[in-house]
Amino acid sequence: MNRRQLLLIGSRLLQVVPVVILATVAIFGLLQLVPGDPAAVIAGEYATAERIADIRRMLGLDRPVWEQYVVWLGHAVQGDLSASLITGQPVLDEVLRRLPNTLLITVLALVLAVLIGVPLGILAATRVDRPTDRIVTTIASLGVAVPNFWLGMILVGFFALGLGWFPTTGAASLTQDPLRALSHAALPALALATGGIAEITRQLRSALIEVLSSQYVRTLHAKGLSNARILWQHGLKNVSLTLLTVVGLVFNRALGATVAIEAVFAIPGTGSLVVASATNKDFPVVQGVVFVLVLIVIGLNLMIDLLYSLLDPRVNRR
Amino acid sequence: MDHAVKQPLLEVNKLSAFFRAGRGEVQVTRDVSFTMAPGEMVGLVGESGCGKTVTGLALMGLLPPASSRLEGKILLQGQDLIAMPPSAKRRLRGRRISMIFQEPMSALDPVFTIGHQISETLRAHQDVSRAEARNRAIEALARVGIPEPTLRYDAYPHQLSGGMRQRAMIAIALVCEPQLLIADEPTTALDVTVQAQIVDVLGELCTRMGMAMLFITHDLGLVSQTCSRLVTMYAGEVVEEGRVDDILLRPRHPYSSGLLRSLPALTQRKARLPAIPGRVPVRGDMPPGCRFQPRCAHAQPPCTAPQPLRAVQPQGEVRCCRAEELILPGVLPVERAA
């Protein structure tokens, strides 16, 4: 860690602040657009207008939107994401309770995507336009096109209900019962991973083809290096930036896709929480979940930015 | 051992290169033949697309095997490189034959240090320790005139100027002290002031290391500075071969003459530069006989017959049936040359 890299981290951290503010404004604004009044939902079907107005005042919903936002943000930076309108429980507790289930399937999906996508991409790129390449690229195109929730249902039908290898629904704690947790996470992670596998395969293939046909690779051949050395040392280091970028995208996308996948597999994660809260107009919970997920995504992107500077000497230039 | 001394270092014999195009093939070079003695510096000149670079890549075995095919012979000290298995050819590259390229900006791997790229070449061919490879890489950097070579060892390509990158490229190519260097337009992408320095470095290193160099260029001025012999190519064929001094004074082929006369520095000031009229024929639509004849001011009916490359007096070879009768201008006016 030299001084330049510390400066880079500092400036990137500063850039995070406006991004977080923008993201929270966006969530807040979007929720205002949702038809229906949370107070009316809480008050029940036959509530009087006064009763609803009381509830609105109690919850602070009668105040201007910007004021609600500032109050919420003020609490949020202190770690208080306010409480659920329905249960009255602190939102942060609920989110943190469910987050491990979501992160487990997302991280597992990412690991699967890298472990399968990278070898496939290399295989295709080193056999351009030969049958292996054609088969791999066809499968990858299919993988991009298949909706993951549909694939999730097919996987449940075949591996869980048919063969009985995996449980159909639910989740388990990774710390208390790792094996059971993994067996619960396997199918949802696989369903989440297919898009990532396809994306990594395709991107890595095209990046590696470009590198392998570059002028500097011709120089490496002219120096008499072996094909293996050119591929594994020079090829991989040069495509590592692309790979890193794609891995970040795949993670973000998988995190978003948990909304559908958790519904299919009935996993008590943040995805199903956000769906349930949105249906109940439990806005503080929706805001809280999205806020935490945004922080995770931003944190990951920050980490990727810093890794860039370690992998490519040209990034530090300034 | 007597005949071994006389044996040429490189003997290119009727080398033809074909590229796959769609279902068929396109012939890129035809019957290219020339020889190089150990330590000899030969210029290979011609317009863009005449097959100079393809010939250089063919000598290195760097043409893509899936989409190209070679005919003829490339003999390096009697060993045929075309018949050689790929793995054996790989062990020759960078060790006995090296090549440097036109674009020093893109010819170096951007994510590895200059030093790494030199020492990995050494370690690919010789059993040396990391420390020794490092020392020899620093020596190689010093030899090509890079200041503070110990510091530059850890520099990345983007931290060097174009001229320094080309020097680093030369250091990579020469670190194993090859017998033959193929320099493919090594100065074209550089500033004019830097060009002369690079050519000087190359010439000096060749002499000091006893290394032969095939200098591929379209700049006859650079050739006359460094090389003793000249091979002119036109439309995929060798049209003239001879000593540089002879050809500068009295070229035998009208195309060589045209090339020489279009050199700006050597023509009179303020005079219009004489250009060669017409354009290079397209592959697959080559004129019959002499390929230059449609553009040649001296063309006559016999020129449409196939032209062999034949020896001329006192030395050299030319692919022109009128070589003896024509007195063509070189870089000096005809009257004085004759």
TrEMBL record, chain A:
It is found in: Cell membrane. Pfam families: BPD_transp_1 (PF00528), BPD_transp_1_N (PF19300). InterPro entries: BPD_transp_1_N, MetI-like, MetI-like_sf. CDD domains: TM_PBP2. Keywords: Cell membrane, Membrane, Transmembrane, Transmembrane helix, Transport. PROSITE patterns: ABC_TM1. Residues 99-304 form the ABC transmembrane type-1 domain. It is a multi-pass membrane protein. The chain crosses the membrane at residues 12-31, 103-123, 135-161, 239-265, 285-308. Its main location: membrane. Belongs to the binding-protein-dependent transport system permease family. This is ABC transporter permease. It comes from Teichococcus aerophilus. The lineage of its organism: Bacteria, Pseudomonadati, Pseudomonadota, Alphaproteobacteria, Acetobacterales.
UniProtKB/TrEMBL annotation, chain B:
Coiled coil: none annotated. The keyword ATP-binding applies. Its main location: membrane. Residues 10-260 form the ABC transporter domain. It is a peripheral membrane protein. GO terms for molecular function: ATP binding. Keywords: ATP-binding, Cell membrane, Membrane, Nucleotide-binding, Transport. PROSITE patterns: ABC_TRANSPORTER_1, ABC_TRANSPORTER_2. It holds the Pfam family oligo_HPY. It is found in: Cell inner membrane. Transmembrane segments: none annotated. It comes from the Bacteria. The keyword Membrane applies. NCBIfam families: oligo_HPY. Belongs to the ABC transporter superfamily. This is ABC transporter ATP-binding protein. It comes from Teichococcus aerophilus.
